[in-house]
User: Which sequence fits this backbone?
């Protein structure tokens, strides 16, 4: 199933953002993301039919043009 992901993030100074997306869990069993790197806080996760043992986590690292980072 496709799951839309939207992060509630914005840079207070209005700087552009880059988001690095990562699925954390059993290798090859976490489904897939539409993109690994985006400039908008949105992505689509193609979820697997069943979750692997231990579950799946989504890690998003947000950086602005000055290198400030939020994980």
Assistant:
């Amino acid at each position: 199933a496709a799951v839309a992901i939207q992060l509630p993030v914005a840079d207070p100074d209005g700087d552009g953002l880059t988001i690095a997306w990562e699925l954390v869990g059993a290798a090859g069993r976490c489904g897939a993301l539409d993109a690994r790197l985006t400039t908008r806080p949105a992505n689509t996760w193609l979820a697997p039919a069943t979750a692997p043992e231990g579950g799946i986590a989504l890690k998003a690292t947000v950086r602005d043009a000055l290198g400030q980072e939020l994980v």
